[in-house]
């Protein structure tokens, strides 16, 4: 069962029950008020008859000039007074009984012969009581029988009367039927209006469902129109946010897949180049023909260089892959000491290029993995060496700024085009592929450096001007010891 059907049936049931209950309560209240009005009318008429009966007996006593009438005289006077009352449309008959229950006067219709008057409650014997009775054999099927005690000249009597209430019970029954019919009619009309209202209110939910199905089918650009400020509008906003998140995630996965494809293609190409050279020059040495000593040395040197390049490539790939899956423990270490060790290891190749390396680092501690941090500085300085001209200069400086340590690596070489700066940290990307390969590069250095900076909770910024050189700014948090915090 759909949601709109559940809401419709539940609300319709509640509406029918509530309207029926209210109608029954109002009907009962109306009927009770009507019966009380008829009963009060009968009691008033009964009291009027009793007052008239007393006045008539007293008048008869005064006419006789007696202080008090005898019991028999009282009976005769009472009967004489009642005989003057002629039954009418409302008063159908009278009956007067003595204290022993003997009928003294009776004008009830023959169909009401043997009528028994209603008895007063035991706790209030002087109360006036009335009852509605049905007499199927009488022209007046429904009569209100009223009885009350009357004291005449110290003699007890019981005065009874039958009052016509017409077809009041049938009217009340018809009223109940009309009320139920009206209730059902209103419920049906309300059901129709409710059905339209539920359809109108839940129409946005149906649209949400359609949009959700389209998104589930892969149309992640689908968005839901947000209308109003109610809960459905909130659900629509959440669904749009979810679709946007899914779309962004899909784009990221597509980009990762594309980057991986490019990475694998570049890897295969980069490994193919040195392998081709190694195999080619190995064949030249292997083939049975005359090879001079100078050629043999040249071929062996090429094979050696290409093998070193292949070893460097595989090592950097292993480092790059390992960095993403290894949890490292960073220990405080002196930045000056590490920088001096890197400078010392670079002296031979700097001398070959007639380059000068200037190192100026304060004695400040940085939380680091010592070998990886040395690899970071080595790669950056080596890239600067490859981009520099013969007899140029490189600089490695550092400074502290509050709780941060900033390292600057500067060269004054060829520089990097502005549009290439954002790409050079991608694996295998090289600005000048022929020059980089000639220098033994594979395009992995800066990608490796960026990953090392990341795991050291630092940042790397590259600024370069074509023909003027490059400045790389590294920023790291100072060691916990420098900040006065205990080492974990």
Q: Note the run of SSEs as H and E.
A: HHEEEEEHHHEHEEHEEHHEE
Kindly state the percentage of residues in helix. Answer: 40-55%
Number of helices: 9
Number of domains: 3
The whole-number mean of residue pLDDT values reads 78
CATH class group of the largest domain: Alpha Beta
Q: How would you characterize the largest beta sheet?
A: 5 strands, antiparallel
At CATH level 2, the architecture of the largest domain is 2-Layer Sandwich
As for the CATH topology of the largest domain, it is: Beta-Lactamase
For the terminal residues, how far apart are their CA atoms?
Answer: 61 Å
Shape: rod-shaped
Total number of beta strands = 12
Structural class: alpha+beta
Strand order, biggest sheet?
Answer: 2-1-5-4-3
> How large, in whole angstroms, is the Cα Rg?
57 Å
Uncertain segments of ≥5 residues (pLDDT<50)? Answer: 430-443
Q: What portion of the residues fall into strands of 2 or more residues?
A: 15-25%
Characterization of the model:
This protein is of the alpha+beta class. The chain has 3 domains: 3-172, Beta-Lactamase (2-Layer Sandwich), CATH 3.30.450; 220-326, Signal transduction histidine kinase, dimerisation/phosphotransfer (DHp) domain (Helix Hairpins, Orthogonal Bundle); 327-477, Histidine kinase-like ATPase, C-terminal domain (Heat Shock Protein 90), CATH 3.30.565. It has helices at 3-64, 71-83, 168-216, 231-286, 293-323, 335-352, 370-387, 433-438, 445-455; strands at residues 91-98, 103-106, 129-134, 142-152, 155-164, 331-334, 356-360, 365-368, 393-401, 404-411, 459-465, 469-477. The strands form 3 sheets. The chain has a 5-stranded antiparallel sheet, with helices on one face. A hairpin with a 3-residue loop joins strand 11 (459-465) and strand 12. Helix 1 (3-64) crosses helix 2 (71-83), helix 1 packs antiparallel against helix 3 (168-216) and helix 6 (335-352) runs parallel beside helix 7. It is rod-shaped and about 175 Å long. The two termini are 61 Å apart.
